[in-house]
Design brief:
Distance between the termini: 55 Å
Order of helices and strands: HEEEHHH
Largest sheet: 3 strands, antiparallel
Shape: elongated
Strand content: 5-15%
Number of helices: 4
Helix content: 40-55%
Radius of gyration: 21 Å
Structural class: mainly alpha
Number of strands: 3
Length: 117
């Protein structure tokens, strides 16, 4: 558990739903400081982090990182803007076929390539 890395990655956001400031770190998502005042939210987060570090040393706490999607070997990340109809099609096919949205795009590309032959 790298306390300095966690402290350096801390962010604070206002939550309309909670009507409070929320302090979190993507390197330790199982800790959050939630208070009406920004300073109090930071204070709460750091107190919880210190307490959790003691628990970590005793083997009773494991920091959880924010999950990220890992591309399959050879896959590249692509960001693009498309019409809503295209988005809905990709989402629907992804759900219907139980595959990722990227796999749907790859399948459409392969069909297109086959039609060229």
């Amino acid at each position: 558990m790298d306390l300095e890395a966690i402290k350096n990655s801390v962010t604070c956001k206002w939550s309309e739903e909670d009507e409070a400031f929320i302090v979190t770190s993507p390197l330790c998502i199982n800790i959050a400081g939630v208070e009406e005042k920004r300073e109090d939210a930071y204070e709460m987060f750091y107190e919880m982090l210190d307490s959790s570090y003691d628990a970590f040393l005793q083997g009773t706490f494991k920091p959880m990182k924010k999950a990220g999607r890992k591309p399959k070997t050879g896959a590249k990340i692509l960001t693009l803007r498309v019409d809503e109809e295209v988005v809905n099609f990709i989402k629907a096919e992804s759900s219907r076929l139980q595959v990722t949205q990227g796999q749907v795009v790859s399948q459409v590309f392969n069909l297109y390539r086959l039609k060229e032959i």
